[in-house]
Amino acid sequence: MKQQDCLRRFLFEDFAVRGEWVRLQDSFQQAKQHQVLASAAVESQLGQALVAAVLLSATIKFNGSLIMQIQGSGELKALVAQSSHDRKIRGLVRSDEQVSGNNLQEMIGEAGRLVITVESENAEPYQGIVAVLANSLAEVLRGYFRQSEQLDTRLWLFATSTHAAGLFLQELPSDNHDQTDWERIEILASSITAEEMLNLDCETLLHRLFHQEKVRLYDPEPVEFKCSCSRAKISTTLAALGRKELESILIELDNIEVDCQFCGAQYRFDKIDVEALLANPGGDVEINNKSTLH
C-alpha cells in the first residue's frame, strides 16, 4: 500500500547529508477544492507549492507556521502555501480566468518574487525573499537556499491532478566536508522521474536511488489539510480596522460578511457583533466589498 499524506525524514549515515520525502493525496484534494484553478498547470503549481511548504517546514525547529508566497504581474497573480510545525497545510491561488503559461516563470510574469515567512510562537518572525528567475519552483527554491543558507540544497517537486510529491536533500554543516559526496548524492537523486516520485513508496524510492549508501529512515509524520481560520482571529483582524472603518461598512451593509480564502468558511458580523469585537481583538480574510485583510 502506497504511503500517502505523510512526510519521511532520512539521513545518510556515512556523510553529512539529510533528506525528506513527502507525498500528498487527500490533503492536496481538500486544499484545492476551495480554489479556482484556471488550468492543469496552475493545479500542478499549487500541489508543488504545498509539498515544498511541508518539506521546508520540516527543516526548522519551531512552533508556528511557514508561509510560502509567490507574487507577480502575470496571469497567475499569487500562489500561497502554508504548513504548520505539525504538518497542517493549506493553500490558495489567485489568477486570471485563463492562464496560458506552462511553467512558473511564464505564469507569474515579470518582477515575480518568492517570499518565505516563518511565524513562530517562541521567536521573532523571519522572512526571506528571492526573485522568481527560473521556470520551476524547485529551481527558484534552490536559488533561495544558495542566497540565504549557503548550504547545498536541492528539491524535486511533482504534482498531477491526484497526487503531489517531493524529495528534499540538504548538506549538513560538518568539519569533514567532502563536496564529492554531495555531488554524487545529487547526481543519483537527479535520476528520479515524476512517475517514480508519484507512485513508489519511500523505502522503494530510496533503495532505487541510493541502494549503495547507508540510509537511516525515520517514521512517517502525517500531513493533513486544516485551515487555521477562526471567528476569533477574524474578529481581531476586523477590530484592527478601527471603529470608523467598520461603521462606514455597516452604513452600506447590514452585516459584514467575511470569507476565508483558504477553506471557504463564512463568518457574519452584525452591528452587535462589531461592538463586541471592538472591545476584543488575526487571519487572511476577504470581506464582501472585496477588500483583503492581512
UniProtKB/TrEMBL annotation:
One of its GO terms (molecular function) is protein folding chaperone. Keywords: Chaperone, Cytoplasm, Disulfide bond, Redox-active center, Zinc. GO terms for biological process: protein refolding. The keyword Cell membrane does not apply. Transmembrane segments: none annotated. InterPro entries: Heat_shock_Hsp33, Heat_shock_Hsp33_C, Heat_shock_Hsp33_N, Hsp33_helix_hairpin_bin_dom_sf. GO terms for cellular component: cytoplasm. This is Hsp33 family molecular chaperone HslO. It comes from Methylomonas paludis. The lineage of its organism: Bacteria, Pseudomonadati, Pseudomonadota, Gammaproteobacteria, Methylococcales. The gene is hslO.
